[in-house]
Design brief:
The structure is a single chain. The chain is mostly helical. Helices cover 71% and strands 2% of the residues. It has eleven helices and two strands. The chain has a two-stranded antiparallel ribbon with strand order 1-2. It folds into two domains: 74 residues, Winged helix-like DNA-binding domain superfamily/Winged helix DNA-binding domain (Arc Repressor Mutant, subunit A), CATH 1.10.10; 145 residues, GntR ligand-binding domain-like (Four Helix Bundle (Hemerythrin (Met), subunit A), Up-down Bundle), CATH 1.20.120.530.
């Protein structure tokens, strides 16, 4: 845990920084379903007292991104196949709408940034070794860069909530490497999405995003829930 977190900067309130860092662990799949989160260890890693960690954790419990076990420990919820499918079905609609809006507002600077992120993602997939953490982070950064381009803060909050719940499962194949990673399937879908954004093609961007989500869903569902 200590290697995943950074000390809280003094310019930002401790509570908000702690919440952001724990959210990032969930959004980028660094915590596994069923994994316990120690309040004391997290506080030590961040260099803060237990109080702001407890407040952040219980806010995430209220959002169902974390849960309190019968023994009062805090852990990442496990997900059933039905829950995974339901959240995926919702993501197809919500995130599909977000990329449609982004396609109407995408700037040259955004396209250039996305191209760079996707190239970095492809290189990270080729990197030797079993640690694919950079792959997970780059994938999340690319997706959220597109969603933010929609310039709809309430929509972003909904998407973040979905990712907080599904993040520990969503990056199953990216985190450990897989055939999808080796073949760079996500990179291909991303490139189609970027091309559609460049062409101001909302329906094309939506289709590419949905193909990306469905591809990951089919692989993870077969590996994790079958």
């Amino acid at each position: 845990m200590q290697t995943l977190l950074s000390p809280a900067p003094k310019r930002v309130t401790l509570g908000s920084n702690v919440l952001l860092q724990i959210k990032d662990l969930l959004l980028s799949g660094k915590l596994m379903p069923g994994e316990q989160l120690s309040l004391r260890s997290t506080a030590e890693a961040l260099g803060v007292s237990v109080m702001p960690v407890r407040e952040a954790v219980y806010q995430l419990v209220a959002d169902q991104a974390l849960e309190v076990a019968p023994n009062r420990s805090v852990r990442v919820p496990k997900m059933t196949a039905d829950q995974f499918k339901e959240i995926t079905d919702i993501r197809l609609q919500i995130e599909g709408y977000a990329v449609e809006q982004a396609a109407r507002k995408a700037t040259d600077a955004l396209i250039e940034s996305l191209e760079a992120l996707n190239a970095d993602l492809a290189r990270a997939m080729d990197a030797p070794g079993g640690d694919k953490a950079p792959v997970v982070l780059l994938n999340k950064e690319l997706h959220f860069s597109i969603y933010e381009a929609a310039a709809m803060p309430m929509l972003m909050k909904i998407i973040e909530t979905l990712w907080l719940r599904i993040g520990p499962v969503l990056n199953y194949d990216l985190r450990g490497g897989s055939e999808r990673t080796e073949k760079k399937i996500a990179v291909e879908h991303h490139q189609k999405m970027i091309d559609a954004l460049r062409e101001s093609n909302p329906s094309g961007a939506r289709q590419a995003l949905q193909d990306d989500i469905k591809s990951a869903f089919n692989y993870i569902h077969a590996k994790q829930f079958s």
